[in-house]
Amino acid sequence: MFRKKGKESKLSYMGHILTENRHGLVVDARLTQATGYAEREAATSMLESVPGNHAITLGADRGYDTQDFVEACRSLAVTPHVAQNTSKRSSRIDGRTTRHTGYAVSQRRRKRVEEVFGWMKTVGLLRKVRHRGRDKVDWVFTFTAAVYNLVRLRSLVFAPT
Q1: Left (φ > 0), alpha (ψ -120 to 50) or beta: where does 133 sit?
Q2: Residues 37, 74, 30, CA angle at the centre, nearest 5°?
Q3: Would you state the pLDDT for residue 139?
Q4: CA nearest 15: which of 124, 154, 141?
Q5: What are 111-147's pLDDT values in tens digits?
Q6: Residue 69: CB partners within 8 Å, gap ≥ 6?
Q7: Contacts for 79 with CB less than 8 Å, ≥ 6 apart
Q8: DSSP secondary structure string, 32-98?
Q9: Fewer CB within 10 Å: N-end or C-end of the chain?
Q10: Nearest 5°: CA angle at 79, between 84 and 121?
């Protein structure tokens, strides 16, 4: 069950994507039952499934600035470039992360995820899902992410020089 502020609880799903920063392509897409922890759990499982042993940085908003998520990222050898949540408590992201110029770059580029969700809602027709059941909604979400990649690849390959 998921509840927005001041509204009743509704049974719903949350879509999660993992993108790469250079070209904005979707690397992984997952659908979960909406809970208070689904975003961080999905992000951790997506990071675990990234192949290879190269350096990975993760740009995320301040909802991911929790001790358990930052520790999980560091245990997976992922540098968490998470926006600092300093409004009500101290941030779990310290100076060893924020002092690098790559942190500022990740904070600017993390907004590409929002571009993907905006495209999925408007062009991909996911503003109001027309299917019921987790399997069907998961299939539609993954298919829409794949179509986004195809459209994005078209823009990258045929970009004016």
Answers
A1: left
A2: 40
A3: 93
A4: 141
A5: 888 888 899 999 988 888 888 888 899 999 999 999 9
A6: 40, 43, 44, 80, 82, 92
A7: 55, 56, 57, 58, 73, 97
A8: EE--SSHHHHHHHHHHHT--SSS-EEEEE-GGG--HHHHHHHHHTTEEEEEPP--SSS--S--HHHH
A9: C
A10: 70
Let me know how long the chain is. 161
- Sign of the dihedral through C-alpha 120, 122, 127, 132: negative
The whole-model pTM stands at 0.78
Tokens at residue 151, please?
């459209």
The amino acid at 90: S
Amino acid, res. 77 = A
